[in-house]
Amino acid sequence: LIMENRLRHALAAGEFILHYQPLIDARAGHVIGVEALARWQPPDNTIVPPGKFIPIAEETGLIVPLGEWVLRTACEQGRAWIDTGLPPLVMAVNLSVRQFQSENLVELVQRILEETRLPAVCLELELTESMFMEHAERSIETLNRLKALGIQLAIDDFGTGYSSLTYLKRFPIDKLKIDQSFVRGLAHDPNDREIAATIIAMARGLKLGVLAEGIESEQQLDFLRQQGCDYYQGFLFHRPVPAIELEAWLREHS
Ligand code: G
Ligand code: G
Ligand code: MN
Ligand code: NA
Fold first, then answer.
1. Does ligand 1 come within 6 angstroms of the Cβ of 94?
2. Residue 57, C-beta contacts closer than 8 angstroms, at least 6 positions apart
3. Can the keyword Phosphoprotein be found in this entry's annotation (predicted)?
4. pTM for the full predicted model
5. CA of 130 to the centre of ligand 1 (A)
6. Which H or E element spans position 82?
7. Quick check: CB of 119 below 6 Å from ligand 1?
8. CATH number of the domain at 2-253, please?
9. Whose CA is nearest to atom 22 of ligand 1?
10. Global ipTM
């Protein structure tokens, strides 16, 4: 309860910030977008990672106003970058289970796109497999309505959930993001190599884009390149940083 009140106060006081991490096109080598990642910066100037507050926000329902703030702020930033003359970048935003299941998600996304004037094609929502475990039919309907807005849909942490793969053919998904737990072992773990290679081949077969997260080394990158992975993300390219710290880099790499 103390934490809930602190988070509620933090949202009202503007203590949440977004960091942005580049997404890289494997063939062209340039940046194609960024992922927005929430951080909490209390007045003592420490930075609290999302693992410490997203679960609590999710339990208490505060994720709904917080998620709306994240979505609006990310879309505003995407628009601001276009207005400074950068090419349109993908703005990838994480959704929580509760946000995905909320009644007015589609209307909210539509309203924020209109208010911020971010082209719909620039917005990519990151979903997780766990969102589809219950209420599959309702999930399909929500996803179809989101797609009808013109946005992109990605599955985050792919391979770590417990859901069946049937949703890949039934749901309007654009991209798979291979979880970083598989990327970590690519240089030395034959199982991780097999899993990553299989996800990439399956994505190609299903005509889905595929991105590898958490790339930290050249060895990991070499393997992913050999397998034909479409997009990269990880500290090897850039850490998540505030918008202001990324702008020059985006200009140089787009
Ligand atoms: O940035 P970091 O690696 O610490 O993020 C940890 C986790 O927090 C990731 O799984 C990421 O998806 C999640 N996360 C980051 N920002 C947000 C957000 O704005 N909303 C939701 N729902 N999850 C987020
Ligand atoms: O679950 P999700 O994909 O949203 O989580 C993204 C998280 O991964 C972010 O919190 C980000 O800080 C973290 N991250 C991004 N790149 C790397 C990386 O190369 N190595 C590690 N360890 N974490 C990373
Ligand atoms: Mn993510
Ligand atoms: Na992930």
1. yes
2. 7, 63, 66, 96
3. yes
4. 0.97
5. 15
6. helix 63-83
7. no
8. 3.20.20.450
9. 96
10. 0.97
SS3 221: helix
**What does the domain layout of the chain look like in residue ranges?**
2-253
Site to probe by mutation for ligand 2, drawn from 213, 224, 239 as the one with most ligand atoms within 8 Å of Cβ, is 213
DSSP 121-168: GGEEEEEEGGGGSS-HHHHHHHHHHHHHTT-EEEEEEETSS---THHH
Rounded to the nearest angstrom, the distance between the alpha carbon of 55 and the centre of ligand 1 is 10
Tens digit of each residue's pLDDT, the chain (254 residues): 788 899 999 999 999 999 999 999 999 999 999 999 999 999 998 999 999 999 999 999 999 999 999 999 999 999 999 999 999 999 999 999 999 999 999 999 999 999 999 999 999 999 999 898 888 889 999 999 999 999 999 999 999 987 778 888 889 999 999 999 999 999 999 999 999 999 999 999 999 999 999 999 999 999 999 999 999 999 999 999 999 999 999 999 99
